[in-house]
């Protein structure tokens, strides 16, 4: 069951069911801009910025988590 879209706030981080963490940077006109943090095979992490429709963004989210340092 996806998270409620109204619970997504700028500055908060959320984790999906696959282990990726998303830091919300902006919400505007039904779209969310976020940084996606994923672990790499070498033990580090990669970061990418993306924008998606809010309804698509919340589909696989499991809940709010602390943001990566």
What distinguishing features does this structure have?
single chain; about 70 residues; 5-stranded antiparallel β-sheet; 5 strands; about 50% strand; globular
Give the helices and strands, then pairings:
Elements: E1 13-16, E2 21-28, E3 31-39, E4 45-53, H1 54-57, E5 61-65
Antiparallel strand pairs: 1-2, 1-5, 2-3, 3-4
Describe this entry's structure for a reader:
The structure is a single chain. This protein is 6% helix and 51% strand. It is mainly beta and 69 residues long. It has one domain (5-64). It has a five-stranded antiparallel beta sheet.
Helices, by number, come to: 1
- Ends apart, CA distance between termini: 28 Å
What low-confidence regions span 5 or more consecutive residues with pLDDT below 50? none
Radius of gyration: 11 Å
Per DSSP E runs of 2 or more residues, the count of β-strands stands at: 5
Largest sheet: 5 strands, antiparallel
What overall form do the CA principal axes indicate?
globular
Order of helices and strands: EEEEHE
Count of spatially separate domains = 1
Question: How does the helix and strand content classify structurally?
Answer: mainly beta
Q: What proportion of the residues is helical, as a percent range?
A: under 10%
Can you summarize this structure?
This protein is mostly beta strands.
